[in-house]
Specification:
Blueprint: H1 2-9, H2 32-37, H3 43-58, E1 63-65, H4 70-83, E2 89-91, H5 104-110, H6 112-118
Parallel strand pairs: 1-2
């Protein structure tokens, strides 16, 4: 995938940053937190990988992510702090600040106008 993206970006003036981090430990349908609790995954590896990903994402000039994810929301928040303004972003889950946020799905369905007011739409 990295080679394909680099080839597609060639000559565009855009760059791609990739961590040289072995992610095979995360290839599983089992939730990471459950594997850590069961002793099947090193918590230090999880923490290091998460922090590296978060810091790299926060350096982006624009963010495409799943804003129902705490990681994507944290990266967007850190990027906004770094820039002094909200960077361009796109949520691929279709909601401006995710579906399972402190606003909750209930507010999105019971009062869509209120949900939009408190979201980053």
């Amino acid at each position: 995938m990295v080679a394909e993206v680099r080839a597609a970006l060639q000559g565009s003036g855009l760059s791609l940053s990739v961590l040289a981090h072995d992610r095979r430990a995360f290839d599983s349908a089992w939730f990471i937190e459950h594997r850590v609790e069961a002793g099947a995954l090193d918590p230090a590896l999880v923490a290091e990988s998460m922090l590296l990903d978060l810091l790299l994402l926060a350096e982006c000039d624009a963010l495409v992510g799943t804003l129902s994810s705490q990681m994507s929301r944290a990266a967007l928040s850190l990027a906004a702090l770094r820039r002094g303004a909200l960077p361009p972003f796109e949520s691929i889950d279709g909601l401006p600040w995710g579906c399972c946020t402190w606003a909750g799905e209930a507010l999105n369905t019971s009062d869509p106008a209120a949900f939009r007011r408190i979201s980053l739409a």
